[in-house]
Amino acid sequence: MEGRGAKLVVRLGAAFTLFFLYLPLAVVLIYAFNESVAQAWPPTGFTTRWFGVAWNAPGVREGLSNSIKIGLVAAAVAVVLGSLAAFAVHRYRFFGRETISFALVLPIALPGIITAMALRSAMNTTHVTFSLWTIMIGHATFCVVVVFNNVIARLRRTSGSIVEASMDLGADGWQTFRHVTLPSISTALIAGALLAFALSFDEIIVTNFLSGAELTLPKWIYNTIRLPKNRPAANAVALIVIVLSMIPVYFAQRLAGGGDTVARPTARTAAAPASGAPMG
Amino acid sequence: MADTTTKVASGTARGPFRRSSSFLNAHPRTRLGATLGIPLLWIGVIYLGALVLLFLNAFWRVDVLTGKIVQDWGLRNFDTLWSTSVYRTISIRTVRIAALVTIADIVLAFPLAYYAARIATPRVRALLLVAVVLPLWSSYLVKAFAWQTITAPHGILDSFLGLLRIPEANIGASEWAIWLTFTYLWLPFVILPIYASLERIPESYLEAAGDLGARGWKTFRHVVWPMAIPGVVAGSIFSFSLTLGDYIAPSIVGNTKFIGNVIYDNVGVANNLPLAAAFALVPVAIMAIYLALAKRIGAFEAL
Amino acid sequence: MKRVPKWVAAFGVLALIGAACSDDGTSPGGDGSSASAVSSIGPTEGELNLIAWVGYTEDGTTEGYENYDWITPFEDSTGCEVSVKYADSSDEMYNLMTSQAGQWDGVSASGDSSNRLIASGAVSAIDPALFDFTDIIPPLDPMTGTETSQYVVDGNVYGVPWMYGPNFLMYNSDVVDPAPTSWDVAFETELNGAPNPYAGSVTAYDFPIYIADAAVYLMTHQPDLGITDPYSLTEEQLDAAVELLKGQSTLINKYWASYVTAIDGFVDGSMVAGTGWPVNLSYAEADNPAVLAVEPSEGMTGWADTWMMSSSAPHPNCMLEWMDYSLGADVQAQTAEYYGAAASNTAACPILRDSLDEQFDFGDAVDTVRYGYCGDEAFLESLWLWRTPQAPTDYSVWTQKWTEIRGA
Predict the structure, then answer these.
(1) Phi, psi of C82 (to 5 degrees)
(2) Complex ipTM above 0.85?
(3) Is the CB of B141 less than 8 angstroms away from the CB of A234?
(4) Facing C25 at nearest CB: one of B65, B69, B172
């Protein structure tokens, strides 16, 4: 089916892309241990003190805990709203259906600074004070579409007759939802929630616009990186975060079934042979 | 799947939860309202409302002395943007870089996505997907600074080229550096949709192509690529729009102003929200056109 | 066709709501300029939220500099727990003070934001009788000073003077030889008839206020323009400055908006000449001893920061206590030493001298440009301190011009 040459090209290309993806992370690794404050090449010496600095820095733990809180709430809100919207768009034909899908995409399709400016302007107008909640609102807004896309793609691949069968067998709406629908979209939800959390965890632009003195981890990093004194500590923190997140990401990937991770575009041709389409 | 009007099977008495569930079952419109209402409220009122408020500002102006916004309707901001050529220059530059970034991302994404989707064993595939997603968990800022170090004069890139006896690239603070940085930052967002669309190609299509005598490149051109297009376009929406609005990476890695910088400068620097809002309409218009085209291709509905 | 009217109606409604609600979108509470000045300090509220330049509010948690702490003694004596938001630029400070008016008690405002803050009513006037200004360097004295336009307007005093310093010319002595005496190395595309040898390695401050530096240069080199005040430029004078800066942009390696960028540049050698702050110098020279600074013959712009209180401060008494505390000679000496600036309280100068003597055996450093020639009135008066341009051309025009220079 594919020539050997083609396979080689693919393998080489894939390897190069992986290398490209991890090269800067290797740089981060190197400079987390670099002696000097300036991040110039070549590194000047080896030290582990930046990890100590990061550990003791007053803002890191507050930033980390806030980021986790915000991420969890934003992901949860995104899961709820995204699935609701996906169900609505999938199950019903109604006026404005296409526009809803379009509107949901906007927060992530429009540049972040516009979303940030718009929300901040609106909050100022309505005299809402900035807090962790305002950050959560901002993040949830662009996270919804991630879950929406995952769920609706999954719903499109799920045979509708299963729901009808469940109803025919005597289950009411709630039972059907709990025992039939939910399991079939659960992995899509997990994958969407994970990506939503990741997006929120590393978000800086919307956060800057919608927060006062509240610290998130990206904000702490942003501040530290502009201070000459402790800059390498930001590298140390970033490194620790990656290492620590390997575990939950791997497990979430396993849970989500490895195959279906995120946004699945529905090629119209693939949706056509519906009756024989396998699940998941 | 059309409206599902289903029968409530049982007639025995139930608690309020079950009864409301049955009610909703029997009244699909209400169910729709409840299902759709909440997200609609969120996106519609909060987000779209905020957007509309923001763009209204484009028609107003800021009082020079007090810094307050005066609702003096007019097109002066658009006049400023149109008559000063630098705004056009910046817009064109940003779009150009966004396009180059998108192309580079697609080229880089494809082999890895294809390998993961079609060649790798399930275990390797899971590992590859983790490998693709993991960089998203490291700080964007730290990655941008890493690129600054890579592209700096006599930096990592230059030293590497020196090892190969190639003259120094000397791209520090240039558009090349910005292009590389953006390409890197958005790459996972482009890989994932392409992977998803490649994964869905039925094996039978490829086998059929092979049976009909097609070899690698032909199969790619006539079977793989057309089916990957929705994913490619979906990923490109990310890389394009993220580049259009970013102001942090250009200021860390480069020296030139992008659309995001101008908007940010005017929102912060001169407290000139009206002008910032007016200029923000440029990326919005560009993305609107892009999204409309994407919709034509059928990709955006499942980003 | 049913679609169109509904969406139009929806947006129309939103637009009407927007028009009705938006008029006070960015207005901070209160109007400090006409309200009566705050004239007494009441009981403290237990908390203080400040916006400050990094380095102005040390609390002993900076690694390697644990002995610099003037926050903890303040917290102990007043019970006001301090939390600080570090801002990178005057513009960010202005933005925070106006858009989040009820959250901040005060700000260490530089001249390019202070006038805007005053004019928009974001900061309150205070009664100078509350504080002790006896040792303040005379040009900055609120009642009699000649360099107070950044914080005294129409006879109302809007804050207390803090640190000041120059924007001097930093250069790499290994590359720029002989030592420069003029700003021309940073501005001119041609030096002595030949192309500028430092092209591609110059740096400049990435904010519109930098136009004033170009204006200062033109005061000497194009005197027919008649510039007498680099912050009050006519259109013609502004255009001339913009021309100069457009030419300079061909020399620039990288503009610096965050001083970390400038430090990196001078350390790795990609920048060899350009404007900088004393704090840039002290960090850069630690890693690259060839980096020095000089005061060019045409003169320099500078900054004089003032602690100002928000007109909607949630903890006004804590802020007033802070303002009082910040005038103290001890506090100012510590800050001047840590940050690299000149203290407005001249009583701090001998304290600084002793400390430098003790630590580095070099007390005379206090009389160098690095510490702003502490106590030297003539030097202070020679600086063109940052002020918000208002007339004939105002800051929003400067911003548009700056976009033109930077965006091309």
Answers:
(1) -95, 130
(2) no
(3) yes
(4) B69
